[in-house]
Structures are given as C-alpha cells and as structure tokens.
Here is the input.
Amino acid sequence: MEFAFTDEQQMIAETAQAFFAENATSDRTRKAMAGDGIDRALWQGFCQELALSGIGLPESSGGAGLGFVELAIIAESAGAQVAALPMLGSLVQAGQAIAAGGSDAQRGEWLPDLISGERIAGYFHDATLQASGDRLTGGSRFVTHGSSADLFVVTDMQQVWIVRADAPGVTVTAQTSMDQTRPFAHVALMDVPGERLSDPGAALVAAHQAAFIAVAAEALGGAQACLDRTVAYSKERVQFGRQIGSFQAYKHRLADMMIEIEQARSAVYWAACAVDEGSDEAAMAIHAAKSFAADAYFRCAGDMIQLHGGIGFTWEHDAHIFFKRARSLQAMLGSGNWHREKIATMILGEAA
Amino acid sequence: MKLGFSPQDELFRQECADWLNGQMAGEFRDIKNVTKLTGNPERRKEWEQQLGAHRWSCIGWPTIWGGRDATLAQQVIFAEEYARAGVPGRVNHIGIELAGPTILTFGTEEQKQRFLPDIAAGKTIFCQGFSEPNAGSDLASVRTKARLDGGDWVVNGQKIWTSMAHIADWIFVITRTQEGSQGPKGLTFLMMPIDQPGIDIRGIRQINGDAEFNETFFTDARCPADSLIGAVGDGWRIAMGLLAFERGVSTLGQQMAFRNELDEIIATAKANGAANDPLIRQRLAKAEIGLRLMRYGALRMLSQTDHAKIDGAALTYKIQWASWRRSLGELAMDVLGQGGEISDHAEYEWDTLPNLFLFSRADTIYGGTNQIQRNLIAERGLGLPREPRGMS
Ligand SMILES: Cc1cc2nc3c(=O)[nH]c(=O)nc-3n(C[C@H](O)[C@H](O)[C@H](O)COP(=O)(O)OP(=O)(O)OC[C@H]3O[C@@H](n4cnc5c(N)ncnc54)[C@H](O)[C@@H]3O)c2cc1C
Here is the structure.
C-alpha cells in the first residue's frame, strides 16, 4: 500500500506551497482582481522560474512530464491562496487538449508558448456551435481569463478547434464577474477560421479529466485554507471571556470542516491516481472528486464567513475571495448534481 | 502514490478468496451471509476455531502465537476477501482486535503464552467491560472497584452495554484500585474469567429486538493477582492504547460488508423502480462516493509511514463511516418504502436492510459518539481548547 506521496511528490508539494504562500499574497491578488485577474509576475515566476507549468504535459513539447497526481499537487497549492493565474484554462484545459489531441505540428506550435506563459489560451464548449467546414460561428459567456487569451480552444463535443484571438470575426468582451480572480469573458465567433485538432476524442477526454481533477484539487486547497485561517482566528478572538474556539458549537463546526476536507483529499488523489494508472475506477473517480471537493469547499468557505462574524463579511477580509472562488468551482464544468447523476447511471443504469 | 496492491499481494488475495469461498460453499455454508452478530452463536464459535486451525484467525500476529506475520497489506486483503465471500462477522472480534493486540503490546511473556494461542485458535472469546451506568463518554469516571485479597483481585461494581458477554469466556475491565482516586488516576486493567459465581450477566434488549449487549454485575468476583495488564494504577494508559487498536486494518473488511449492504440497496432500487427517482439517484450516488472515499481514506491512513504523526484521515475515520452508515440505513428505508416496516418473521426480527436502519443508530454512539469524535478532532487535530470539566 503506497497511497501516500513519494518523496519527490512531497518535494513538489513543499516547493509549490512555499511559492504560492510567499507570492500569491492577498495584496497582490487584490491588485490582479482590479485588473484582468492575472498576477503577471506570479504567472512568470510560476511558468519560468519554478517551471511548474509544464507538470502533466509531455516532455516532448517542453513539458515536465509527470502525471495528474503532480498536477493535483500544484492546483491544490494554487487553490490554497486563490492564486490569480490563468492556469485552468490555459494549461489544464487547452494545454491538455492540445497535448492529447493535437498533431505534432500543433503541439510544437502551441505548447511551448503555453508552458512558458508567453501565450495564454482560453477554453470553451458551445453546444450550439455552427461549423461550416472549419469556419465557426458561436461563442460562450463563460470563458475564464478570456480577455487575456491569445487563442481559444473551442469544442462542440464532436470536434475541437484552435482559434486565434486576433482572427477576424472574434469579439471578446470582459464580464464583470463575481470571482475576480478568475473573471469570465464573453467570446463571440462570427464565421471565424478554426484549426481542427487531429484527435478530438483524445483531446476532450484529456481536457475533461484534467479539468475535473484540477478543479477538485484547487477546491481541496481552498477548503483547507478556510479551515486553517478560521482555526487561527478562533484562537485569537475572545468573547464571553473565552477564546471563541472553546465553544463547542464552534469547535464542532470546525471538526465538520475537517471531516469534509479529509474526504475531499481522498477523492482528489484517488481520481488523480486512477487516471494516471489507467484504472477502471477513473471514470467514477473524476466525477466523485469534482462534485465532492467543490461542495466541501463551498461549505467551508461559507462557514469561514459565519465563524468570523462581521469581519468575515467585509471586503477587506479574504473570506469572500475564497467564498466566490468556491461558488465558481461548484458551478463550472457541471454542477454537483450533474456529476452525481453520471455516477448514478454507472451504478443504476439510465433512469426510465 | 499508488492505488493498488503489488502482484504478490494479489496472489495472496487469490489464496484468501479460494480458502474462504471453499469454506462458505462447504462445511460452513449454513452461516454464509448471516449478518447479525448474535445469529447462530454455536456455529459461529466453531467457525472461529476453524479459522484458528487453518491459521487464518489473526494473520497479522507473530507465527509463534498462531499468526502468519502477515504484512499490513495482506491483512487488509484478507479482511476484504473475508467480507466479499459473505463470511459472517467475527464473534470474537473483541478478542482478536482489542484484547489480543493489547496483550501483545503490554502483556508479560507469561500472559502472551496463556492467552494469545487460545485467542488465535478461537478457544477464548473476549468481551470488553469499559462502560458503566455513570461512565460512558466520560470513561475515566468508572467506579467498579478492585482490591487485592490474598492472591486474588476481588471486584465489585457494574459494567453495562457489554457486547457479547453472554457468549464470552473472558472479560477485560477497567477498575478503580486506588480508594478515593478520581478520573484517569488509580485505575487498573484486569482480565477476568466470566464463568464464576461473582459475575452475573443480564441481556439488554436493543431497538432491533436483538440482545447483543448486556449488563454485567460483579459481586466479589475474583481473578488471580497476575491478571492485570501493565502495573497497578496503569489502567488508563492501557485502555487508551487499546482504543487506538480499534481503528486498525479491520476497517477495510468492514467496508466490504458495507459494500454488500449498498449493493443490496441498489438491487432493491432497481427492482422496485426507486432507481428512477432523481432524488434517490442522487442519494445513491452520494452513498457510492462516500464508500469509495472511505476506502481511500483508510488506505491513506494505512499507507502513512510516520504513524506517530496525528493523521487527519485516521482522526476523522470513525465519524465518517458511522455517519455514512446511519444515512445508508435511512436510504435503505426510503428505497424500500413503507413495506420496509413490515417483517416476514413472526418474531420481532428484521432482514438485512431494516435491521441496518435500526442497528446503524448505534454506530454513531459506540466507540465514542459523534459528539465525542468532534471534540477529539477539534482538540487533537486542530489544537482547539479542551472541553471544560464539571466539578464532580
Ligand atoms: C451497540 C452498542 C455496543 C456497545 N458495546 C460496548 C462494549 O462491548 N463494551 C463497553 O464497554 N461499552 C460498549 N458500549 C457503550 C458505548 O461505548 C457507550 O454507549 C458510549 O461511549 C456512550 O456512553 P453513554 O451511553 O453513557 O452516553 P453518554 O456519555 O451519557 O452520552 C449521552 C449523550 O451526551 C453526549 N455527550 C456526552 N459527553 C459529551 C461532551 N463532552 N460533549 C458533547 N456531547 C456529549 C453524547 O454524545 C450522547 O449524545 C456499546 C454501546 C452500544 C450502543
């Protein structure tokens, strides 16, 4: 039984945690929130100095190799600080899609720049996308970090295309988004030329698996941070002549957070390992991880506000940054109910 | 980080499965799938002896005491295959999971010699005499007294909720040996033979109609002076050591039994149409997720190389499974519908799923209630202030 980090994984975790704790500070994140939701210096440090951006992407395209366990470790650390980075759209969704489904030429053209952070990709699904040949008309209002993207990976779940942001017919409109660390853009395509990925099936599987796992891992990191910060506060704040953390109603709520988080941790690393090992359980595990971890995060972030009292409701306190990220993770890439219905179908068959 | 077991371990799995399936198809087929702890006690004792005779009873123990020196992974595998084969629970689980490890860890050579081979052989069945009418969650308030009289300990007092005492041969008890002492000080851990005039056992009927636990009265009950584990006054340390064994490898076997319960609910839902209800589908999916997460939580706990570290997965495990199973009982009844409230038996007796519904209310009570678990998690896992204590 080796369901624990290897020494190398432990090292990656410590490096990533230290990097984000030191650099993705509240001040810096808030500056990014006032702009396009990207802390450029953080992005550069992450991609170039630490070279963590290539994790989970093939070495032949400039990636670092390794697998989804390591990717989850990175996403967990970034999530713990609600880091303002375009990692999800650019590296996880677009990067994985191109790595798994692109031709050699496509991989060579796009991946090195995505990994170095010099170019940023957005990713979206449009169920009603109209493709006439490879000319695309459609769009999405929910393209994360879309205003900063140089290219988009676009799918109708049949085919996958790469679209250049500066191609004629592409309009990108920034949206005022609740989670300002990962704002949405409205991307509209009007008869825009797309470049088809050679293996769309592989691209979609990889992008989904990676995104479910990364979102779950980010949620795990965020949930743990909510708990840690609330525990720290509960030991400082005194009411009725006692630390508030000595009241049982308060203590028990913190314990419940920990119980949820420990399960979320099992879910995330189960899913990551299952995909890496090509296990039969992978199909179930990715849905379990996404739904369980995102729900756990939301509960913990909500409790964080409650357990801080008035200060937790202020803009100045960081609680809302976690809370808004948690909400966004819950809703994106399929709600908890949607993921659980997938699992229900696996164990029960389709509903009559 | 890896999910699975090694190829050698998988071979061992096959060996376990073959032997267990052979038994359940052969000599012991009459007890296959018996789920109640109290069902068929005589045959269940014979089954303990059969396990012992083939060295499958306590495989993690050293070979000299009747074990196989099995690795942790092998113990997990055996536990999984045990439940998968539909073998009923161990009537001597307290002996093999609590008394045995306690004697192995804290006992003298002579005590190991005296007890371990017989526990492994299924000849000595143990029960646990910790709780008292006034000492439940607050275990350190026990009042049952023991004093030395010549060469014997003489014990007076009462234990309660003693599971399986009516079929056990021995009981281990925490007693107060220092007159006037309070709390965890002045306690001593004793092992006593049950079959003696000073011990009186009376069954207590439970909400499912069954009587698995008992009141145990001690009136000048006796055991020899060397029946204590550890030193006089050392009882609390031994008791705490014993409770730590409670979350061992058996957890994965227990989960396989849960798997069987969930599968029965799934089969029922498919058969009666409940599986078309979107809300039931969500709850079944949640139950499935919860069960898988329990498995991987347990594997994380058992893969932990640094066991001294307080591990989050270990600390949260009890409340996790107990709460999961209690919800599973409720889900079972919602899948069964009103028909679940009618038994086919003339006696007040319940089949697996209604019995699960009733029995699982105990899961969140014994072994430390959910509230006590939350206190422990908050205090040990999160470093929060301890609960204030009253005066008496
Ligand atoms: C099926 C079953 C089998 C058992 N088998 C055995 C056995 O073999 N041997 C044995 O020794 N014991 C056994 N027990 C006893 C079991 O360990 C106790 O029931 C348990 O520890 C709770 O103690 P209590 O019943 O006295 O409840 P109490 O401790 O009186 O608790 C009553 C309620 O108060 C709550 N409470 C108590 N203290 C606190 C606190 N500090 N903070 C918040 N809430 C609190 C509890 O959570 C509970 O809800 C068994 C119990 C059951 C149900």
In short: Chain A touches chain B through 53 residues (CB under 8 Å). Chain A has a mean pLDDT of 97.
